[in-house]
Every structure is written in structure tokens, then in C-alpha cells.
Amino acid sequence: MKPNYESPTIQKLNAGMMNKFGSRTEYTPVKFIDNVAIADLMDQYGSPLFVISERTIRQTYQKALKAFRMRYPKVQFAWSYKTNYLNAVCQVFHQEGSWAEVVSGFEYQKALRNGVPGNLIIFNGPDKSREDLIMAVENRSLIHIDHFDELFMLIEIMEEREDVKARVAIRVNMDTGVYPQWDRFGFNYENGQAWNAIVKIIAQEKLQLEGLHCHIGTYMLTANAYAVAARKMCELAFAYANTTGKHVKYLDMGGGFCSANTLKGSYLQGSDIIPTFDDYAEAITTTILQFGFRPDELPLLILETGRALIDEAGYLLGTVLATKRLADGRRATVLDIGINIMFTSFWYNHRVSPAQDFTQHVEETTLYGPLCMNIDAIRESVIMPILKKDDRVVVHEVGAYNMTQWMQFITMRPNVVMIDTKGEVHLIRKQETVNTIVDCEVVPEHLK
Amino acid sequence: MTKRKVTVAATGLNNIDSPGPGIPVIRGLKESESLDVRIIGLSYETLEPGIYMEDLVDKVYQLPLPTAGSSVLKERLRYIASQEKIDVLIPNFDAELHNFIKIQDDLKKELNIATFLPSQVIFDERQKSELGKFGEKYGVKVPESQMINQVMEIRKLEERLHYPMVIKGRYYDAYIAQTYEQATNFFYKVVAKWGYPVIVQEFVTGTEVNVTAIGDGKGTCIGAVAMRKLYITDKGKAWSGISLEDDELLEISKKVIENSKWRGGCELEFIKTKNDEYYLLEMNPRFPAWVYLANGCGQNHPEALVKMALGEEVQPFTEYQSGKMFIRYSYDLIVDIAEFQKISTTGEK
Amino acid sequence: MKVRKNIAISENGFIFNPLTGDSFSVNETGVFILQKLKEEETIEAILQSLMDEYELDTYTAEKDLNDFLSMLKSYQLITND
């Protein structure tokens, strides 16, 4: 048998060179996901292809739940729809016991269709129409008020209604010592806005303040910021109790936990520096437990974790379209995976593995997508084994945001499959066709 | 007395004009009176001089860069451990410490390689951006500082800190600003390179004095030697220095090591003011490149570290000679390209 | 197309150019091609031996060989005569 062919390469050795020794093992080929052969998946479902591991979702969810449950008696997760609202994915979370957390009328409808009872839907975000609010009130959903305009609109809506109360919370923003401070959502804590909103709600007979909500940022590298946030939330909850004699039923600490992806510009690998679920849980629960609630008055702790629960479960498989040499001698590899379906490549250096065997020789390359657009690069510079046309690659940790923020641009969105816990493969979103796009268009008579 | 054989792996073989601490640490170990040390050098680049110093380094392996992450590092060490029985490993680079601290328990459990490192918590506490809290917690004066995210905040700080003030990046870089205009320039420069927040620090004038120290992790300072730089290179690194007899400085240093229960080697950088006050500017979480001076005046810190890593009780050093000097020099090694080829193509030598 | 004189090519793919002082690392296929070049084989002959040695189609062989030769040229390791 002839030996396996690898394209010839030459690399100049100099003092500043990337050293490949030891990085030899950085790229073990990834040929299977949950024991299903990647080659089989791509032969059947095409390329590029999103793959979701149901087993990883369930394991990650249980890990997160355990971290909080062993420290705090009342914990509830609410699945953040915007992170990944493919119905199959949502259903896995709902089966595990998650409520739904939505930020638009569209997402709200999706949650209802997924069979989530209205009273287990949390409605967040700055964009809730009059119709959305009416629907949420009637379904007894938890409305997390973002601004005074929304509060006044809700008061107005309730004036016309009898025998029904709106279940509400306010979103609070605050200084937790991290930069940037997310002050565009909700009511500010430090300047008293949040308290003003609470006072306003107290005065409304038809508004029932059920909880308090915050969401201090995204990809939070310090668990301590949550301790600061939890303390301020507890202070508001106490102030409310002192004023009204009633207790809020829950504190919703939002999301923002990190996944193991590496942010661009980070010197160390994401997986080495991110806090664990236990770190976050410790910071939040210790603060609440020590604040002085009576045991029977401890609020329910709600978490809207998205990214950290789904990122690792998502893979994106792709194929090398071409390899070429750039003007300055650098290697370029063109993949069929573009930024149009991998939005997170704007802020992460995603890990990319080859899906077949290779030698220990590596080369620095840029990974470009297939778009005829200069910005379409998914890794500016990465040390990879020598790839050739038709080789396959696996992009890791793409479960969060890609399958919601992807755009239909130049190419169409590909198939998404889920591997269930028994190893069966299910198509959960069909690849788009020309009709998917064109059917929405209307051409005026005179242009036909 | 026959010397006990041990194998120690060390990084920081970049013994160049701005040297890493690896070779000085190794020299200390080679001069141990009780240990017969075989040295495994761990390098990141192919031209680190230590790779070619065969009288000091018995065998060399390349490591993946810290950016590759701790799991890749562990994988590589697993391979090295299959070739060599390593008793103790001493990392000497700031940038690699995070990964080594992360995997220190696994190294011991899986590969039986001992390290002697601080915990992640204490390691983080002495970060530049946390210096204020660190000083308060462990009872040492530090220059007043404030983390800011907006350039306008400099105006607010002017009353408290006065000019000149120091504008520092979160991890590296420090500039001395004499005016608001300069301060804002440095602010943007630092932000561009290191991101937010920016540290604005009181400028303390005086003499820089440094201490190399070692703690046992249980609240005892095993050794501490004070030094003042006599001459510095154009890169600001010590060219020559002299050991000092300064009881107050040593007391302060010991207090920091004891209160923080520091585990391993470290360097404390102080400013001594005209009024004989000591301000801690920085705590580096590893031996300094001048640690061999400690050995030269009677305290072999690298040897003590290896013994503690092996689980032995080490009695604290009580004295050392002041007035000992170190003078750095450079030296041209002659090496055949075959040696370079070996490390470049196989990653071992 | 000739390899410059004095250029040392070792079995494990280490190349040293004493003229410029540069050293390089090449993979197995690279060593294979360089050895053929040293033996002063023609490009056509090298292409053929590549395809005899490996499982490989003509297009890939030609594209890869051209790319490799251009890199060798840019590193001043081969000359045109």
C-alpha cells in the first residue's frame, strides 16, 4: 500500500517561531462525536453541518443544577431562548426542568408552542409590544420590566382589566466592579431608579411584584461580581419587605456565565481561566444565605444561564474548499464555514480540529470562509496540520448564539442534527433551499 | 556524606540580557551540599541559552507555549515523564504560572511530579490590579492606587494623587505622567495594549530595594535576602546589585510572606522613601533572576524549595552576609548547528 | 531547477543553508522532492515519482509541487539553471 500523502511544506526556523513540540498533541484528530463517525454524518447530511450532542446538554445542565442545588434549597433554571431556540434544543432543557426565558414576542410564541405553561415563561427585554404584554398578562407570565415607558404602558393596560393581576419584576442594573457596566437595560441601583420603580409598582394594585432580576454582563470572568450583584439584590428585597411587609418570591440572577471558548486577545486558554459552576454558585448562594432571610422566606433563585449550558454541546463540521498561498507567503485555507453561520468567530478564537489523521507537521494558516467578502475569516492565524482540499474539520463549542444569530447571506443555512443519548441521529432543522428565501419575496407586476 | 540523587525540571532557560531565573536557580541546585541534582531543562524557544549549557542542564525538552492551555501542557509533561523520572518541577516564568498552578495537583497525583506553588487565590490576590487590597490585608504599605475606566476620572484623582502619577496597565507597562495631558495619552496607550481597567497610582519617590524570599505555605518565611541594584541595563534590568543588611525591610517582607502564607519563591519590590518608609510596589510570584545572590551570601533558596517540595521540613535561614555583590556578564557559547537541529526537529536535546 | 550547492538535507527534514545561515524544517513529502531535486531530476520526472510513491492525482501533485518549488525559490534554496 502506498503511504498517505501530505502536501510538501517548508518552514523557516527562527528564534521567534511558534514551537510545534508539545503542540503535537494539541490536534488529535476528532473523528467521532458521541461515538457517531463524523464522516458518516457529513456523507449523509452534507457540509457544513451543525451537530448537537443531547448527552452533553443534559450532562452540563445536571452539573450546573447540582452546583447550585447542593448549596441552596430553591433553584430554578430558565432556558435562555436567544442562545439557541431550535425547538429540539429547547425541549431538552424543558424536559430537564427548565422554564423559558424569552426576550421578544417571537420567542414568547415559540415557548408557548413548545408547550411551556404561560406561568413558567419569563419575559425579558426592552422590546415588548402592547399585544405582547396583554398576552403575557393573560398567560400569567413573569414580566420583567425594563424601563418606565414599559411600566406605564403596563399600568395603562391593567386599568382596562378586571380580576387579573400582572405578575412583574424589575430588571436592575448596577456597578459590580466589572467593565463595561451594563447600564442600558433595566433600572439603575446606585442612583435610586430601581427603588423608584419598585415604589411605583407598590402603588399599583393590579401589579404584583414577584421578584427582582439582574443580568450583570456576559462572559463574566470573575465570580465575585455575582456576589456583589446578589448583595445589592438582597438589599432591594429587604427594602421592599420593610416597606410593604411582603417578600419577593424570587431573585433572578440572569446569565453571563462563561463557556470554555477563548476570547480573542486572551493570552491564556478560556478553559484555564473561566470560573466553574461551583465558583459562580458559591459566590451567589453564600451571599444570599448570609444576608439574613428567615429560612422560610428565602427567595427562589432563578438562573437564565445560556452560553455555559449549550456552547460545548454544539459542533460545526466543514470541508476544505481550497488551500492557497498568500502574497506574503503565508498559507490560507478556504473552508465552507463562513462567518455568516459562525457569528461567534467575531469574538472567539474557536478551536478547530482536523477530522482525519495527519503527521506531526504543522503550519500557520488563516482559515477563511467561502464568502466573497474580505471579512470572512474564522481564524486569522492558527497553527494547523497540513490540510488539503476535501479534508474535513470540526469547529468546537459553537452551541451558543450561532444557530440564532446566523444570517442567510450569500449561502443558505445548513442542516442541524442532534445525536440523542442513545447515539441515534435526528435532523432537527432542515437546510434552507432557494424557496425558503424566495417564497418571502414579492416582485411587483411591472418587474416580472 | 553522600549526596541524595534528585531530578529537577526547570523552565526559564532564557539566560539572555534580560534573563529568566532558570539558570540562576539551576546553579543554586547544582551547588547543593546535600543533593545531587540532575537537571531537566524545559524550554519554549530553540535559542534559549540554557538549552546549550551542558554542564548545568543534563537534558532538555521543549514545552508548548502557555497560550496552548493547561491540558496541552499536561499532555506534554506526561510524555516527558515517560522518558524521565522527575521529582520536582520549578516553573520560573510569570506567563506560565497560571497553567502550572492549575495542574499542580494532577502533576503530583498522576505523574508524581512535585511542585511548590502558591494557591490560585493567593496568586490572584497579589496581581497588580489588586495591590491596594493586598496591602491592606497583609499589613504592608502600598502606593495609593485607583482603577479607572474613563479618562475623565483622572481629573477627579488629581487632588488625591498629585503629579507625577503612574499610569499602569492591568498586567504590564507603567508610565510616569507629569501633567493631565500626559496622563490622558498614557491612559489611551495602556488601554490600547492591555484593555480596561487602567491603574492610576501614586508616585512614590525614593530608592528601589528588592527582596528575594521563600515561604513554606504554612506561614513561615524560610528565607529572605535584601538587595539594591547598583547598576541597571538600558532595559531597566539589574546589571549589578549588592546584598543589604536592612532589618526593617526584612521584617516587612517576612510579614507579607507569613501573613499571606506564601508558598514557594517570590520577589518583593519596594521603594524606600526619604523618611524610611517602605512601599511595596509589586510581588512577583517566582524567584527573581538574581536569586543566585541569595546562594552567594549564604541562603540557598532553590535548594530549600526542592526539599520542601519533596515534603521535608526546612529550618528557616536566620542570617546572610551583607555586602556580597553580583555582577552579570554575557558569554558566547560555541555550538554546532547539529545541536540546534536536534532541538528544532525533535523538541529534545 | 537545482538545489544550491552546500545545502545540507538531513533524513529528518532539517535543512541548513550555509550561504545565508538560515535553517528550515520540511515534512516527509518535502524531503522526497528535495532529494529528487538533488539528483537533478526534471520537474516532470519528480511529478511522476510523486504519483508513483503516493496515492495522488495529477492536479494536486502539480499544484503542490509548484507551490513547494516557489517556497524553495523564495528561501533561496534552489536556482533556475
Question: How do you describe this structure in short?
Answer:
The complex is a heterotrimer of chains A (448), B (349) and C (81). Chain B is α+β, with helices and mostly antiparallel strands and 349 residues long.
Kindly list the characteristics that best describe this protein:
heterotrimer, A: 448 residues, alpha/beta, Lyase, Ornithine Decarboxylase, Chain A, domain 1, TIM Barrel, 2 domains, 8-stranded parallel barrel, 13 helices, B: 349 residues, alpha+beta, Rossmann fold, Dna Ligase, domain 1, 6-stranded antiparallel beta sheet, globular
SSE order and pairing:
The complex is a heterotrimer of chains A (448), B (349) and C (81).
Chain A: E1 10-13, E2 32-33, E3 36-37, H1 38-45, E4 49-53, H2 54-69, E5 75-80, H3 87-96, E6 99-102, H4 105-113, E7 121-123, H5 130-138, E8 142-145, H6 148-159, E9 166-173, E10 187-188, H7 193-202, E11 207-214, H8 224-244, E12 250-252, H9 270-273, H10 277-289, E13 300-303, H11 307-310, E14 314-325, E15 331-335, E16 352-354, E17 362-368, E18 377-385, E19 392-395, H12 402-405, E20 416-419, E21 425-429, H13 434-438
Parallel strand pairs in A: 4-20, 5-6, 5-13, 6-7, 7-8, 8-9, 9-10, 9-11, 11-12, 12-13, 15-17
Antiparallel strand pairs in A: 2-3, 4-14, 14-15, 14-19, 16-19, 17-18, 20-21
Chain B: E1 4-10, H1 22-30, E2 35-43, E3 59-62, H2 70-83, E4 88-90, H3 94-111, H4 120-125, H5 131-138, E5 145-148, H6 153-161, E6 165-168, E7 174-177, H7 180-194, E8 198-202, E9 207-216, E10 221-232, E11 238-244, H8 247-260, E12 263-272, E13 278-284, H9 292-296, H10 301-309, E14 325-327, H11 337-346
Parallel strand pairs in B: 1-2, 1-4, 2-3
Antiparallel strand pairs in B: 5-8, 6-7, 6-8, 9-10, 9-12, 10-11, 11-14, 12-13
Helix pairs in contact in B: 1-10, 2-3
Chain C: E1 2-3, E2 8-9, E3 14-17, E4 22-26, H1 28-38, H2 43-53, H3 58-74, E5 78-79
Antiparallel strand pairs in C: 1-5, 2-3, 3-4
